[in-house]
Design goal:
Radius of gyration: 31 Å
CATH class: Alpha Beta
CATH superfamily: Glycine betaine-binding periplasmic protein, domain 2
Number of helices: 13
Distance between the termini: 45 Å
Shape: elongated
Mean pLDDT: 78
Low-confidence stretches: 1-28, 38-54, 326-362
CATH architecture: 3-Layer(aba) Sandwich
Order of helices and strands: HHEHEHEEHEHEHEHEHEHHHH
Number of domains: 1
Structural class: alpha/beta
Helix content: 40-55%
Strand content: 15-25%
Length: about 400
C-alpha cells in the first residue's frame, strides 16, 4: 500500500539560505528540480488514488453461438453505459468455464442453468466457487428439429430413432452447434445412446458440430420435399422464426437429458465479488449484473438481425439498446444469488426512471469529488509555496 504524509513528503520544502552569492544560482536551480520531482510524485499518487489499482473486470462469452454473442454484447454495452471498465473476451464453452475457475475470467455471460451448462460446473460449488446473477432471459430450451420430409415420413419423437431403420432415407448426421457447447455435449450423449441400439449398429448416427454448417444446411434444405435430416436446436434462436417448416420433436425417453427450461444467467467467480479474495467489481456493478433483463423475444430479434440481415453481434445489441434503453441504467434489486426452480417464472422487467438518482452513484461521485478537490488544493498550495520560495531565492541572489 502506498502511504504518504502531506507534512513529510508532499509539501515539505526545505530551503537553506545561501549566503555565498557565487553558489546561489546553482542552489536555486537544484531546489526547483527537487520541487518539480516532488510535485510529479504528488500528482501521480493522487491520480492512483482516484483511479484505483484494481484491474478491469473480465467478461467471457461464447463467441461461436450468435444468440449468446448478442446477449453478451448487450450486457457489455450496458456496463459501458454505466461506466464500468471491463475486458470482453470471446471463446468456446469449455475454455470460458476453465478460465473462470483459473481466475482469468470474472464473469461468464449468458450461461445456461440449471441444466444446460451444469456439466461445466459439476466439480465446483455454488456459493463457494461461483455465484449466479440474473436472469438475462427465462426461456432456454434444447430440442431436436426434423425436416418436413422426415415428418411426412412419420417421425414425431426421438424414441422412434432407437430403431432408425424405419427411416431408410434419413441422413444419420445430426447438425448442430459446436461439440463443446451445452447442446453439443448433450447431443453427443444422445447419439451414443442411439448407436448403442443393435438396430442402429449398421448405420450409426454422427454429429456435425458446426453452427455455420447447420445454418447452411437449413438454408439449403429446410423446405425440401425430399431431404430427411435432423438438427439439434434451441430457443432463443433465429431459426425458430426463419424456418417454421422445421418441426420440434418430442423428446420421449430423452426428456430428462434435455432437462428443464433454462435461464440465461451471468456466472460470477466468487473470488471476484466485492467481498472475495480477488475483488474485480464493486457493489453497484454486482447489482447491475444481477438485474439486467433482456427477454427471450429480444434475444431472438438480435439473433435474427445477425443471421438474416448481416448485423454483427455488437451492432445487433446496439440496435436493440437504442430502442429499449436510455443512457442511464437504474437496476432493480430482486435478490442474489438467483434461486432456480423446476417451474421457472418470468423475471420482472427492469425498472427505468431517469428522474431517480441512484444513491450508490451519488456516494461514488461524492468520493471522487472529494479526492479531486484534495488534489487541486494540494497542487495550489504547492505552487503557492514554490512562488514564495522563489522570492526568497531572489533575495538570496541579491545578497
Amino acid at each position: 500500500m502506498i502511504k504518504f504524509s502531506v507534512n513529510d513528503s508532499v509539501l515539505a520544502v526545505k530551503h537553506d539560505v545561501v549566503e555565498i552569492a557565487s553558489g546561489a544560482a546553482q542552489q536555486n536551480s537544484n531546489t526547483m528540480a527537487i520541487r518539480r520531482q516532488r510535485l510529479s510524485h504528488v500528482v501521480g499518487i493522487c491520480l492512483l488514488l482516484l483511479i484505483g489499482s484494481t484491474s478491469a473486470l473480465t467478461l467471457g462469452y461464447f463467441e461461436a453461438d450468435t444468440f449468446h454473442s448478442a446477449a453478451a454484447n448487450a450486457v457489455s454495452q450496458i456496463l459501458t453505459q454505466a461506466g464500468v471498465d471491463h475486458d470482453f473476451v470471446g471463446k468456446g464453452h469449455a475454455e470460458n468455464y476453465e478460465d473462470l475457475f483459473k481466475g482469468e475470467v470474472d464473469v461468464v455471460v449468458d450461461g445456461w442453468l440449471p441444466t444446460g451448462h451444469a456439466g461445466y460446473l459439476a466439480d465446483h460449488t455454488l456459493g463457494e466457487d461461483y455465484v449466479v446473477a440474473g436472469p438475462l432471459y427465462d426461456e432456454g430450451i434444447f430440442y431436436w428439429i426434423a425436416s418436413p420430409a422426415l415428418v411426412a415420413a412419420g417421425l414425431t419423437s426421438l424414441d422412434q430413432l432407437l430403431n432408425a431403420s424405419a427411416f431408410p432415407q434419413l441422413d444419420r448426421t445430426i447438425y448442430g452447434p459446436t461439440s463443446d457447447s451445452g447442446l453439443g455435449v448433450l447431443t453427443l450423449s444422445i447419439i451414443d445412446s442411439l448407436n448403442a441400439e443393435p438396430a442402429n449398429a449398421a448405420v450409426p448416427f454422427s454429429y456435425a458440430g458446426d453452427f455455420d454448417g447447420m445454418k447452411a444446411k437449413l438454408a439449403a434444405d429446410a423446405t425440401s420435399p425430399s431431404e430427411q435430416f435432423l438438427c439439434a436446436s434451441w430457443a432463443p434462436m433465429f431459426a425458430n422464426a426463419a424456418y417454421p417448416s422445421m418441426t420440434p420433436l418430442d423428446s420421449g425417453a430423452f426428456s430428462t437429458q434435455f432437462g428443464v427450461n433454462n435461464y440465461g444467467v451471468n456466472i460470477i467467480r466468487a473470488d471476484a465479488l466485492p467481498s472475495g479474495s480477488d475483488p474485480q467489481m464493486d457493489a453497484a456493478t454486482l447489482q447491475l449484473l444481477s438485474n439486467i433483463f433482456i427477454g427471450t423475444d429480444n434475444v431472438n430479434t438480435m439473433d435474427a438481425n445477425i443471421n438474416l440481415y448481416g448485423y454483427t453481434a455488437a451492432q445487433a445489441a446496439a440496435a436493440w439498446l437504442a430502442t429499449n434503453y436510455t443512457q442511464r441504467w437504474i437496476p432493480y434489486w430482486s435478490g442474489f444469488p438467483l434461486s432456480f426452480s423446476q417451474t421457472p417464472a418470468p423475471a420482472p422487467s427492469p425498472t427505468w426512471n431517469n428522474d431517480v438518482i441512484d444513491p450508490v452513484v451519488i456516494g461514488l461521485s461524492v468520493a471522487v469529488a472529494v479526492l479531486a478537490i484534495a488534489l487541486i488544493a494540494t497542487v495550489i498550495a504547492f505552487i503557492a509555496r514554490s512562488k514564495a520560495t522563489n522570492k526568497f531565492a531572489s533575495l538570496d541572489d541579491k545578497i
